[in-house]
Write a structure and sequence with these properties.
This protein starts with a strand and ends with a helix. It has a ten-stranded mixed beta sheet, with helices on both faces. Strands 17-16-18-15-19 form a five-stranded parallel beta sheet. It has a two-stranded antiparallel sheet with strand order 4-5. The protein is of the alpha/beta class.
């Protein structure tokens, strides 16, 4: 298999013949890629231009015909595993694309992105293949224009030249779309690459997503491998590939993946190690991805990369999201994630306590849901909670709602609604399907009625109910007593917006279904004897705003939640206990400061 120049994949205005700025088609039995050719520089790296590729044609099947919708749907539903990653990597290396310098490629199995989608550049780990996002190609492709960096196994480009390559692409794309952010998704070694580019380009609007960045080599298995490569005889170097495989926990995770989901680990291990054949075959694949000479070269490059980045962290201004695995046996990701969160001025962290180093390849990890839940997706310089919101798919909603299904079982809620003719029916048929619609209600204790209401509207009418929420769900001040923002990721994923007149205006103008609790947090945290009591302001300004857009106002009430239990201690009781009193006062002070900060920001804008 070879890279075939084709006019359908060349950059705008380029010749259909092989051209240094062309997009090439690379095909195999498993994938179709459009590859951006690069020009070698004096330093051995590659330089790209900022020309955008044309809109790719519909994905091709193995025989070159257009896929029908049912086939595409089946492919979208297929769950890829680490086993697929290793097989695809071997296939990609063997497809004739390994000559030359590093280059960008864009998978054709990505869906067509939505309008004004930002560019996402994926920067791989030390394997350099660039297939680390195979489980996420389709869904990332819906919201990003995605390019992946591929570094051939025979390439010896230095870290500095790799930084220049990515930097040249970033600057070129920024020149073409200066108002649009550029996302750098760096995994392990790629995290160092992303941070280095951000440190050198603080004037460019970059958004960094760092999956277990290898910026801390002390106390890590990688540091041990680097030292080992420097002292052991050359004839023992092949054993380093096996060492790397074992330290990453790769064989164990492959063992789980081989028989399929749901089988006991013992059965998976027996399947993998039967006759020691399967284990040897996977080591062979890993050796093809990382030949000994390449592994040694890139381990040394990683050492210089970590030193380069750590000396320049102070210069990084980019918005950053760190994805940290709790069971990373290769590098101390939890500790490094916390260090970066404290050192970088605009950094958040999401922890995955049961995951290992290969986080992006693990079952159950959904990168798009994490990005959207963290409010990390935007198409302009500043996040617009209304315009940048991407409604969930059915599978996304089911995944997010799964932890809350117990409420349906425990409470067994019954919902009724009123039709336009005045008839009362069971279910939510009476809720208009077309917006703008404003649902106005009151909170029960802890606001537990919210989850069944949102889920029923989605399941019955596929309506996304966008709540107007407290500012503490979107921002916090320092460490303090306020809950970590990750607690509210599911609410933000479902479209919650901070309470403000501007966001309320945008929701109604976009014909959304909005949810308003005028009593707010005070109503959800009511005290003894305040069951079913309203804490609404005397003047309800939402009526005036709703009338401006002709929105239908639907008042609703909830009965029963305040009756299923008895409150033991309320606010008045807790304030009589010194320990709780101090904590409540500290938390109240933080919330007041946050509210004033947001008010000042809105007045300044």
């Amino acid at each position: 298999m070879a890279a075939i120049p084709t006019g359908a994949y060349t950059a705008a205005g380029a010749s259909p013949l092989l051209h240094p700025n062309s997009w090439l088609r690379v095909t195999s039995a498993r994938f179709n890629f459009r590859v951006r050719a690069s020009v070698s520089t004096a330093g051995g790296s590659a330089a790209t231009t900022g020309e955008q590729p044309p809109t790719p044609p519909a994905p091709l099947s193995n025989n070159g015909s257009l896929r029908n919708n049912s086939t595409t749907h089946e492919l979208e539903e297929k769950t890829l595993t680490i086993k697929d990653y290793m097989e695809w990597s071997k296939d990609m290396i063997g497809c004739g694309s390994e000559g030359g310098p590093p280059r960008w490629f864009s998978p054709l199995d990505c869906a067509s992105p939505i309008k004004d989608s930002p560019l996402l550049l994926y920067l791989p780990g030390i394997d350099g293949v660039g297939l680390g996002l195979i489980k996420h190609h389709k869904r990332l492709g819906r919201i990003f224009n995605m390019w992946c960096l591929h570094v051939p196994v025979t390439d010896r480009t230095s870290f500095t030249d790799l930084v220049h390559l990515v930097e040249a692409t970033v600057r070129s794309e920024h020149h073409h779309a200066p108002r649009r952010p550029i996302y750098l998704l760096g995994e392990s070694f790629g995290g160092c690459l992303a941070l280095a580019v951000a440190a050198r380009n603080p004037h460019i609007d970059l958004a960094l997503i760092l999956a277990n960045p290898a910026t801390r080599l002390r106390e890590s298995q990688l540091q041990n491998l680097i030292v080992l490569s420097e002292v052991i005889p050359e004839q023992l170097h092949p054993s380093m590939v096996k060492t790397l495989s074992v330290t990453t926990g790769l064989p164990a995770r492959v063992a789980v993946a081989i028989p399929g989901n749901g089988l006991p680990l013992q059965q998976a291990v027996a399947e993998l190690f039967r006759g020691d054949v399967a284990f040897s075959s996977y080591l062979s694949v890993l050796a093809d991805v990382l030949p000994v000479e390449t592994l040694i070269w890139r381990l040394k490059m990683l050492k210089s990369a970590a030193a380069f980045v750590n000396s320049r962290l102070h210069a990084i201004k980019a918005q950053t999201l760190v994805l940290s695995s709790g069971k990373d046996h290769l590098i101390p990701s939890p500790e490094e994630g916390e260090r970066l969160r404290h050192m970088l001025p605009n950094c958040e962290i999401r922890r995955f306590n049961n995951s290992g180093h290969a986080l992006l390849l693990e079952d159950g990890f959904d990168l798009v849901t994490v990005i959207k839940g963290a409010n990390f997706y935007r198409r302009g310089r500043h996040l617009d909670f209304v315009k940048d919101f991407v409604p969930p798919s059915t599978s996304e909603f089911d995944s997010v709602y799964q932890p809350y299904r117990w409420m349906e079982v425990a409470f067994n809620p019954v919902m009724i609604s009123t039709l336009e003719n005045g008839n009362i029916v069971r279910g939510l048929t009476g809720i208009p399907s077309e917006g703008p619609v404003l649902l106005v209600g009151y909170h029960m204790m802890l606001g537990l009625e919210l989850v069944p209401l949102v889920s029923r509207l989605w399941n019955e009418k596929k309506i996304v109910l966008r709540g107007i929420a407290h500012p503490m769900m979107f921002q916090r001040l320092g460490e303090g007593r306020m809950p970590v923002l990750s607690m509210y990721d599911d609410f933000r994923f479902m479209g919650a917006v901070p309470v403000s007149a501007t966001n309320f205006y945008k929701l109604l103008s976009s014909k959304s279904h909005a949810l308003l609790y005028p009593g707010g947090m005070r109503e959800a945290l009511h005290r003894k004897g305040e069951e079913y009591k309203l804490f609404w302001p005397e003047q309800s300004e939402f009526v005036r705003m709703a009338a401006r857009f002709g929105a239908k106002i639907i008042p609703f009430g909830t009965v029963g939640e305040d009756d299923i239990g008895q409150m033991l201690l309320d606010y008045n009781d807790l304030m009589k206990i010194p320990y709780f009193k101090a904590g409540i006062e500290e938390l109240t002070d933080e919330v007041e400061k946050l509210s004033w900060k947001l008010i000042c920001c809105m007045e300044g804008s």
